[in-house]
Amino acid sequence: MDASALSAKADASSFNAHKEDAAAHITAKERETWNGKQDKLTDEAGNMTLDGDLSVASTINANGGINIPLAASPNTPASAVNRLCSLGMAAVTDAFSTQSFLSAFTLYGNSVAVEQTVPGWCWMLRKTAAANGTIQVNLISPFLGVCNYSGWRGFVLPIALGNNGSRNARKLTFFVGTTDNLTKKTAEDLDMFTLSPAAGNTGTFVRFIDVTFYQINDSTTTPAGYPVRVRELLYNKSEAKWVVYETNSVIPSFNTA
User: How many domains does the chain have?
Assistant: First the structure.
C-alpha cells in the first residue's frame, strides 16, 4: 500500500467520525425549532403574550392580581371555576364572609318559628304548618357592598333552603334605599309583594325586591333545576308610576351544593 492510499483511508476515517458526531451537528427538527425560537419573552412594555396554554409545576405569584375578561369563558368543565369567574375573583372572599349581623325578629302567622343556632350570625327559620307565614328579620348593620371586575356592585346574603324535605316555596323580600312610607303584607300569598310603597310614595331612590325559590325540580327547564323568580318594584320618575320588572332563572339540579 502506497502513501497516497494510506492518506485516503485516514481522511475517510476522520470524515466518518465527524459525520457521526451528534454534538457537532443538529437534526432537521432541531434546526426548525431553533429558527422559530422567540428572541425575547416580553415586549418593550414588559408584557408577554403566548399563543398556547401555560403549564407550570409550581405556584404562580401574581402580586398585581389576575384580570379575567368577563367575555372569556373558562376552558374547563369545572362548574366551581365558572361560578367564581361569573362572580368575579375580587368578591370571592366577601362572598364567604359575614356581611351583617342579625338582630331582632318578628313572627307573623302561627306557621313559622325561629331557632337562633348561632345568635346574631346563623338563624334557622322554620315552617311549622302549611299556612302562609312571615318572619321579619332585622339587621344590626346594613348590607355591605361587594364588587367584581365588571364594576357591578351588590351584596351577598348566605341562605340555605329546605325544611326537613318540605317542598313549599320560600320567598325572600327586602328593599334597597331609604323609605319610611311603605306597606307590609305579611302571611300573604307568594304572588303579592310583601313590602310595597304606601299610597302617595314616590321614592325615587328605593326599590322593593321579592325573590321566590321554588322547591320542586322542573325537568322542562334548560338546564333542569329549581326555578327562581325575582320581581323588582321601583318608581319610574319619567312616567310617574311604579313599575315591576320580573326575571326568571333556575338553580341547576346537578349543582345545588
Answer: 1
